[in-house]
Amino acid sequence: MNKNVFRNLSYGVYIISTLDGERGTGCVANSIMQITSEPATIALSMNHDNFTNSCIAASGKFAVSILSETSASSLIGQFGFQCGKDVDKFDGVGFTVKEGLPVIDDSCGYIVCNVIDTMETSTHTVFLGEVIDGDILGDAPAMTYAYYHNVVKGKSPKNAPTYLPEDKEESGDGGKWVCSVCGYVYDGPTPFEELPDSYKCPVCGQGKDKFCRQE
């Protein structure tokens, strides 16, 4: 089976936020769909290994911040490639509290839900949420997974439903520098060796020392 066919389905890029006790936390997701319009309900697929999964289950609510094509790619690195157990995901990130949950300011819209049902699979929980608030923020187009993959050149976190092992590496034509954390391939005009030591991966925010040369 060619699993790449799944990428012909439509996906967005979202930051899911919830509460760890009284502290906000969250992660990146791309498998969200509207189930009904009245009452408005949203289904969210979340890997069992994501810390956010257990926090949603405990708090009974989650928010969806819809990233736009102009949203800072560092948001994906901050929320997608590190664990909320270890870091404050909202440190340095602009957000507004809606219905008790933090939503990202640098997004094109948000939806807040109360969990009303769940379904378990072998690797993911599907949370069914009833929408209690939502609004449009700005007029930039929503980021699709295709845009993230082809234009931003980002990779899926390993817990994402769309993750494939080759996301971690590009099939090589030699001489590329690849971020060992998120798989971003540097293709800028300046030779990688000449970049300043302060250079950071534009997707996950890791330093130059995290890049490896791929032959």
Structure description:
It comes from [Clostridium] hylemonae DSM 15053. Keywords: Electron transport, Iron, Metal-binding, Oxidoreductase, Transport. GO terms for molecular function: FMN binding; iron ion binding; riboflavin reductase (NADPH) activity. It is a single chain. This protein has 215 residues and is mainly beta. The chain has two domains: 12-148, Pnp Oxidase, Chain A (Roll); 169-214, Rubrerythrin, domain 2 (Single Sheet). The protein is built from three helices and twelve strands, in the order ββββαβαββββαβββ. It has helices at residues 51-59, 74-80, 145-152; strands at residues 14-20, 23-29, 32-37, 40-47, 61-66, 95-98, 101-104, 109-120, 124-136, 176-179, 185-186, 211-214. The strands form three sheets. It has a seven-stranded antiparallel beta sheet. A hairpin with a 2-residue loop joins strand 6 and strand 7. The longest helix has 9 residues, at 51-59. Residues 168-174 have low confidence and may be disordered.
